[in-house]
Amino acid sequence: MTRRLKAIFIKGLAALLPTALTIYIIVFLFGFVKNNISKPINTFIGYNLARWSEDVRNYMVRHYKVDETVFAVDESGNFADPEAVKEELAAKLPWWPAFVLVVFVIFVVGALLASFMGRRIWRAGEKILFRTPVINLIYPHVKQVTSFLFGEDKPQRRYSRVVAVQFPFPGSWSVGFVTGEGLRPVKVKEQSRLVTVFVPCSPAPMSGFTVIVREDETIPLNMSVDEAMRFIISCGVITPDALLTDEGRASMNAQHKRALEGGGDGLSSE
Q: Quick check: 207 pLDDT over 50?
């Protein structure tokens, strides 16, 4: 009886947990965008509009119930307590206008880059960034990563190749993604074709290790990037059927058989 109830509970947990985690992630991302993008932009715009227009201040007091006392000004005409104004606006102004504005700007930039003149203007702006001190130490590397992840040259990337590589020590195999062709000094030393492989960590593939290995020491895996990510995130529990070993297939069949035997109607006592 106890084992039966435990099995039913675990089945219910396994069914609901993915949905619960999905909802949690969506709520987390929503809160992140709301608190770290929308509210700061709203506060910045609202603060500067209220700073220069009394009509805007009166509108905020009437429609958003902003405390009018925070709009007190000093002798020079500036807000007496700017931080209090920002805190009040962050608390009272709606968050969604900035979100809509950001989405609109993204679409406008995308439409601009879809045109020939737009791309030329954008490249001209990037050249300025590349030559600007401090910014030129950060922007090129960030652009390289974003271009790799979101660029239009996906067919030319090697990231779609999934391989098994001996890592972290010989005889221990890890699943990784080919990201490059290695480094010239290493290739000269090894006198062999090399590949750069990113080996994600389980169960959080956002971090991992980058290793350079001989290409003939890797094993190509007939699996997509999505299948490889599921394999890594599940710590090897979710394996594509085509790559299952005989022992793995026998174990999976045995698990299915036990699940079917325990899934009958009614509760049996021990």
A: yes
**What is the amino acid identity at position 122?**
W
Q: How many CB atoms lie within 10 A of CB 42?
A: 22
In this structure, how many other beta carbons lie within 10 angstroms of the beta carbon of residue 70?
22
Q: Which of 140, 141, 213 is nearest to 177 (CA)?
A: 213
Q: Is the CB of residue 235 less than 8 Å from the CB of residue 202? A: yes
Strands 162-166 and 194-200: unpaired
Instruction: Say whether the peptide bond before residue 203 is cis (omega within 30 degrees of 0).
Output: yes
Are 191 and 207 spatial neighbours (Cβ–Cβ below 8 Å)? no
For residue 83, the model assigns a pLDDT of 94
pLDDT tens sequence across 16-48: 988 998 999 999 999 998 999 999 999 999 999
Sign of the alpha-carbon dihedral angle for 98, 101, 107, 108: negative
H/E element holding 31?
Answer: helix 2-33
Domain residue limits, the chain: 2-92, 162-256
For residue 178, which amino acid is it?
A: V
Query: What's 145's DSSP letter?
Result: H
C-beta neighbour count of 71 within 10 angstroms? 21
Half-sphere CA count of 54, side-chain side, radius 13 A: 3
Contact in structure between 60 and 89 (CB atoms under 8 Å): yes
In terms of Cα–Cα distance, which of 24, 42, 138, 144 is closest to 86? 42
Angle between helices 54-64 and 39-52 (to 10 degrees): 130
| Radius of gyration from C-alpha coordinates of the chain | 28
Give me the percent of the chain exceeding a pLDDT of 70: 91
